[in-house]
Amino acid sequence: MAMTEPAPSAVTTAHEGILRRQSARESAARTYARALPIVPVRARGLTIEGADGRRYLDCLSGAGTLALGHNHPVVLEAIRKVLDSGAPLHVLDLATPVKDAFTTELFRTLPEEFARRARIQFCGPAGTDAVEAALKLARTATGRDGLLAFTGAYHGMTAGALEASGGARDVRVTRLPYPQDYRCPFGTGGPHGAELSARWTESLLDDSKSGVPRPAAMILEPVQGEGGVIPAPDDWMRRMRAVTAARDIPLIVDEVQTGVGRTGAFWAVEHSGVTPDIMVLSKAIGGSLPLAVIVYRDDLDVWGPGAHAGTFRGNQLAMAAGTATLAHVRENGLAERAAQLGARMLAQLRALAAEQPCIGDVRGRGLMIGVELVDPAAAVLTAPGPPPAAPELAAAVQRACLRRGLIIELGGRDASVIRLLPPLNLTDEQASAVLDRLADAITTTARTLSTGR
After folding, report:
1. Which of 133, 272, 399, 413 has the fewest other C-beta atoms within 10 Å?
2. pLDDT tens digits, residue range 1-25?
3. According to the per-residue pLDDT averaged within each range, which of 1-10, 159-168, 369-378 is highest?
């Protein structure tokens, strides 16, 4: 459904002025602001209101940070309670009642076997800080330096995290094939493709001539997010756990985006029953505020005081907001809700794909959904494989969605995957509105680009 454009006014002029000043003052490295030229001034739940008076359905959710949407009452109340109490807001890594409550609630949500022997390190404000801590811990505990990571991965923007992300060129990182059906690196897809991926990994580790010494750790995402919403097969996850355990290689699972119910389980590792050695957590655990931790097996806790620090690792407001978010998701069964609603949304998107040849693949888990757009006219050039990705079409669809009052993100290796990360408390009516606007944007844009009208 298209949104009605407001008449030009002083409000619209102010909105445009803010955008002009941002463009003139901010770095060329800004990203979301380029694709989403809006100025949010108010938000609640799924909805953002811009400075120009327009309303948008937000399926970006702070890149997955907002498990409960914008300004959820339980989060706001938790923040107000800390502010009104006179508690210190900045405490470095000192113990506080707020921190104790957060740690207790977090450990309550962890897989039981993992929680029994867990230790936690508060790392700093962002997920990339936690990734750095995880890599440092594994290297300290093993005395080894190398790292196993996967094609298409994204783990953050600091040096060590970038080493482990797809596209890096660091000699200490051995890049492994991540299994997927639609663009399988081995051309087969399905269980056979995942089996070949596992064999590749075993061969590299066991062949004395491979040039890959035993590494400090393997790091992986249970669902690749920035890589294009690619869920790892559960059997493959169990195989990676067996491969690493048999060779005394710590397994680091990056749950920064997949955690807190996003995939239909509280933690994505629960789908496969895998117990990692280290979990990297951020985004939703802070209830919309900056917070990042690693949780790990107690026998890895061999680093000394100050081995990993950070001035803002004691963010009391984030811990309070995080405690409220974790408890609300757990007590209200929102992970289960994400599984059920996500399955229905995926089914409806697959029905749309059957009608729209520009949709190459629909995939995801829970409310972490991806729609890959392709160029069907160029399919003959890639036969028998899938058609080439269509990044220009994807960008045009994103713009069309914004005109219809829908905020989406693009990802994938060619920025051709529409990513949906709505709040876990999305209603059925809101889900229908999201899919209606997305379907209209895809259909209209594909027709316009193919006919020129």
Report:
1. 399
2. 444 444 556 666 778 888 888 888 9
3. 369-378
Distance CA 403, CA 119 (A): 47
Q: Would you say residue 197 has pLDDT above 80?
A: yes
Residue 96 neighbours by CB under 8 Å, 6+ apart: 87, 88, 314, 316
pTM: 0.93
Distance between CA atoms of residues 130 and 252, nearest Å: 11
Computed over every residue of the chain, the mean pLDDT equals 92
Domain boundaries, the chain: 10-64+335-451, 73-331
CATH of 10-64+335-451, one of 3.20.170.30, 3.40.50.300, 3.10.20.90, 3.90.1150.10: 3.90.1150.10
CA distance 275 to 297: 10
What is the residue whose two structure tokens read 């505990």?
141
Q: Pull the structure tokens for residue 9.
A: 């006014």
Q: Which of 125, 20, 73, 131 is nearest to 324 (CA)?
A: 73
* CATH T-level topology, domain 73-331: Aspartate Aminotransferase; domain 2 (3.40.640)
Q: What confidence score (pLDDT) does residue 167 get?
A: 59
Question: How wide is the angle at C-alpha 412 spanned by C-alphas 23 and 334, nearest 5°?
Answer: 95
The pair of three-digit structure tokens given for residue 315, joined into one six-digit string: 């963010």
